[in-house]
Amino acid sequence: MGSPRLVLLFSGKRKSGKDHVTNSLQLRLGSDICAILRLSAPLKEQFALERGLDYERLLGATEYKEGFRADMIRWGEEKRRADPGFFCRIIVRGVCQPVWIISDARRRSDVDWFRSEYGAVLQTVRVVASEETRRGRGWVYTPEVDGAESECGLDRGVDFDWIITNDGDSVSLEQQLSNLTGFIHSKLGA
Ligand SMILES: Nc1ncnc2c1ncn2[C@@H]1O[C@H](COP(=O)(O)OP(=O)(O)OP(=O)(O)O)[C@@H](O)[C@H]1O
Ligand SMILES: C[C@@](O)(CCOP(=O)(O)O)CC(=O)O
């Protein structure tokens, strides 16, 4: 396992398009260069095992996942209380690509952990979309979820290196992804 040349730590609210944007970026870079790591993957896997749920469906973007979100948040927070780096350490194990995309940072403890381990090569990226756009993608305001740390933990206090606006304008998104890809290539070439 090598150490990463670049770590891109993505965050954004529900249905802002974190998965869409990170998948598009990986398509541009190639999966041999770029790995997508999801903090929620080991969480969902273990949660699904314990509850007899469908892990693959928890990974998707459907109502199935939303039905379990509040419970998953509570379950994950218990784990993080005992060990804030618990999920971070699991997802970086054995990754050999030079560029790592973490698709779903949600808490200060996630940012702090990646800064302390990979600060020299870390870039923080915020994906934003208006509430109207997010509603069009199926977002329904749910107080116990949208008012909690899982959604609001990074609203303040992080000076993001990149902000990607994903409001449905595909030309604008392409341009923003080109800029980010250019930066990544410049770092890999250096
Ligand atoms: N630019 C876009 N063009 C077309 N569809 C998009 C775009 N951005 C997001 N979507 C769609 O909107 C839905 C939500 O996007 P996505 O799953 O990427 O959001 P997310 O931020 O990862 O959400 P969650 O936090 O709920 O997992 C998906 O069905 C996705 O395909
Ligand atoms: C339980 C949780 O990991 C669900 C994340 O799902 P997704 O990234 O929205 O697909 C959110 C959290 O950890 O607070």
Automatic annotation (TrEMBL):
Gene3D superfamilies according to UniProt: P-loop containing nucleotide triphosphate hydrolases
E.C. code: 2.7.4.2
GO molecular function: ATP binding; phosphomevalonate kinase activity
Gene Ontology biological-process entries: cholesterol biosynthetic process; isopentenyl diphosphate biosynthetic process, mevalonate pathway
Entry keyword set: ATP-binding, Cholesterol biosynthesis, Cholesterol metabolism, Cytoplasm, Kinase, Lipid biosynthesis, Lipid metabolism, Nucleotide-binding, Steroid biosynthesis, Steroid metabolism, Sterol biosynthesis, Sterol metabolism, Transferase
Pathway it works in: Isoprenoid biosynthesis; isopentenyl diphosphate biosynthesis via mevalonate pathway; isopentenyl diphosphate from (R)-mevalonate: step 2/3
Annotated TM spans: none
Record keyword Kinase present: yes
Protein's cellular compartments: Cytoplasm, Cytosol
Sequence positions that bind ATP: 13-19, 137, 176
GO cellular component, one term: cytosol
EC top class, as a word: transferase
Catalysis: reaction(s): (R)-5-phosphomevalonate + ATP = (R)-5-diphosphomevalonate + ADP
Any Pfam family matching the protein: P-mevalo_kinase
Binding residues for substrate: 166
Function according to Swiss-Prot or TrEMBL: Catalyzes the reversible ATP-dependent phosphorylation of mevalonate 5-phosphate to produce mevalonate diphosphate and ADP, a key step in the mevalonic acid mediated biosynthesis of isopentenyl diphosphate and other polyisoprenoid metabolites.
UniProt xrefs under NCBIfam families: Pmev_kin_anim
PANTHER family: PHOSPHOMEVALONATE KINASE
The protein's name: Phosphomevalonate kinase
Organism (species): Xenopus tropicalis
Gene that this sequence comes from: pmvk
